[in-house]
Amino acid sequence: MMLHDGSNMSLARRAWSIRKLALRMAEVQGQGYIGQALGVADVLAVSYFHALTYRPEDPAWEGRDRFYLSIGHYAIALYSAMIEAGILPEDELGTYGMDDSRMPMSGMAAYTPGMEITGGSLGHGLGIAVGAALGLKRKKNPAFVYNLMSDGELGEGSTWEAVMSARAHALDNLICVVDFNDQQADGPTTQALAQGDEAPKWAAFGWHAQEVDGNDMDALVAAFDTARTLTDPRPRVIICRTRMCKGVPFLEDREITHFVRVDPSEWARALAHLDANVPD
Amino acid sequence: MPDAPIGAHSRRKPKSTPRTLPTSDSGARLTTSAMIASLDAEGRQTVAAPFGHALCELAKTRQDIVGLTADLSKYTDLHVFAKQYPDRFYQMGMAEQVMISAAAGLAREGFTPFATTYAVFASRRAYDFICMAIAEENLPVKIVCALPGLTTGYGPSHQATEDIAILRGMPNLTIVDPCCATEITQATHAIANHPGPVYMRLLRGQVPDVLGDYGYTFQLGKAQVIHGGSDVLFISTGFMTMRALDAARALKADGTDCAVLHVPTIKPLDTDTIRTEAAKTGRLVVTLENHSITGGLGEAVAADLMRAGIHPTFHSIALPDEFLDAGALPTLHDQYGLSVNSITTRVKSWL
């Protein structure tokens, strides 16, 4: 594993930093997918500071693990993780969503170093990851392909084409991470389409499936370790049950929606809460 | 005003009259035998599976070439490649969306994927995936699709009469509609060398050879005059260039001199050549395409000539903006105006 600076900073502290960076970015625009960013921060901390192999100074390094952001609107969260990882400079944070920024509101490969794919048309990432995993095997490159997707994307038929394809090709170098916060644009995901029992469903398709509390750092570390070290010719999925707005209690308690409303004065309040609660 | 009753819409209804088989003295009975082959040979010399063989030839020196199909390798001639290079062939199952996405993923990792299916499925079902997973990043995926336009009698489920209209609006995508076996062979090499995404319409099976007789060499993005003529300028693409050449021959016998400008690359359109030819005075300009009148070559040429201030007398031969009938191809080509007889009749009426 290649931690970017050999730091022994805790994963909890990394997640805390990612949350702070995301709040500062959202404050610039006065809006943003902050509920998702706060919720997925722990998953990204484990990804970028425990699981992934990469070189911050060379985001296109051939030996890197590929990390695909299928959910383009989570870009604010990934920019934060990549700033924390040293892939993106912190002083560009203020350009988020602005004209000519390298950090557009929805993640695109042609804009941002380290942003592997253009996400946002939901249901695309896993299929592209299938092709990349096939390609890595052809090249005998041992890197993993991670695909971070949302529960909403489980409603796209293309996701299930990719699920079946990954198993048919025995893609043991593919790790799908599902951020399951049960919230899509119009309401709870599980009320819009019958999702069934999530982990058994993936297992029935022949995947190695784990379901964890996506805001429990130890559980996440164990799940990512299992997915990476398993010797089993199956693709792996980690279903991460996350809580939107995690880490900022007054936002967690707010009525949760896809686009969480934050009043102008509340950004400072949210940041103050984090500053008063620095993890070890 | 009362609400319209539910069910009052005007959907197409099943045909109500029972049909009888033709009697034995009614002549040859046309069947749907031409459904699987993309095009009947029409007495010409043919080449078997030109795309599949061209891809194998390419793959000899290009390790980056891989093939994918969505359960249609046999019907897109990719089975030739699959047999020769089994470890470079990916059967993606009946799942066009993941086939296109996976092709994008393979291209991201440095490969040059050729992905095959029928034109209807690529253009209608996989559009968003071609657009966002491939074209937006200008990835070198080659989408090669059989049954373009009216090359099957199966009816609208298989007839890609509007694939070019669907795909022409997609930035970065190059669109090729080759005429014959020679051109398919050459175009396969040319699109492999092109750094961006390509959609190529495919004639498969026993494919007529036409342009080899004219000393023609395919150039991506180039329209070429196959032969000159002083009365009419045919601007044609795909196998309609074969029909245009045949129509020109028939009209020559009647004293009408027709030029044929072949436009295998629909996008980007070779507007320089088209404008130069169309600007030559005194010729009737007729576009010919195996595609809907809406959104294909005819409209592209007309719009460009209008923009360029070139105003010849102009007509288009194309499929109607309708869901077409099922049946036998020769019947349907007559019915919808793609046959040589239909072309010559209309050209005479326009002169």
UniProtKB/TrEMBL annotation, chain A:
<feature type="transmembrane region" description="Helical">
    <location>
        <begin position="108"/>
        <end position="136"/>
    </location>
</feature>
<comment type="similarity">
    <text>Belongs to the transketolase family.</text>
</comment>
<feature type="domain" description="Transketolase N-terminal">
    <location>
        <begin position="17"/>
        <end position="258"/>
    </location>
</feature>
<protein>
    <submittedName>
        <fullName>Transketolase</fullName>
    </submittedName>
</protein>
<dbReference type="Pfam" id="PF00456">
    <property type="entry name" value="Transketolase_N"/>
</dbReference>
<dbReference type="InterPro" id="IPR005474">
    <property type="entry name" value="Transketolase_N"/>
</dbReference>
<feature type="transmembrane region" description="Helical">
    <location>
        <begin position="66"/>
        <end position="88"/>
    </location>
</feature>
<keyword id="KW-1133">Transmembrane helix</keyword>
<keyword id="KW-0786">Thiamine pyrophosphate</keyword>
<feature type="transmembrane region" description="Helical">
    <location>
        <begin position="33"/>
        <end position="54"/>
    </location>
</feature>
<keyword id="KW-0472">Membrane</keyword>
<dbReference type="InterPro" id="IPR029061">
    <property type="entry name" value="THDP-binding"/>
</dbReference>
<keyword id="KW-0812">Transmembrane</keyword>
Automatic annotation (TrEMBL), chain B:
<dbReference type="InterPro" id="IPR051157">
    <property type="entry name" value="PDH/Transketolase"/>
</dbReference>
<feature type="compositionally biased region" description="Polar residues">
    <location>
        <begin position="17"/>
        <end position="27"/>
    </location>
</feature>
<dbReference type="InterPro" id="IPR033248">
    <property type="entry name" value="Transketolase_C"/>
</dbReference>
<comment type="similarity">
    <text>Belongs to the transketolase family.</text>
</comment>
<keyword id="KW-0786">Thiamine pyrophosphate</keyword>
<protein>
    <submittedName>
        <fullName>Transketolase</fullName>
    </submittedName>
</protein>
<dbReference type="Pfam" id="PF02779">
    <property type="entry name" value="Transket_pyr"/>
</dbReference>
<feature type="region of interest" description="Disordered">
    <location>
        <begin position="1"/>
        <end position="27"/>
    </location>
</feature>
<dbReference type="Pfam" id="PF02780">
    <property type="entry name" value="Transketolase_C"/>
</dbReference>
<dbReference type="InterPro" id="IPR029061">
    <property type="entry name" value="THDP-binding"/>
</dbReference>
<dbReference type="InterPro" id="IPR005475">
    <property type="entry name" value="Transketolase-like_Pyr-bd"/>
</dbReference>
<feature type="domain" description="Transketolase-like pyrimidine-binding">
    <location>
        <begin position="45"/>
        <end position="209"/>
    </location>
</feature>
<dbReference type="InterPro" id="IPR009014">
    <property type="entry name" value="Transketo_C/PFOR_II"/>
</dbReference>
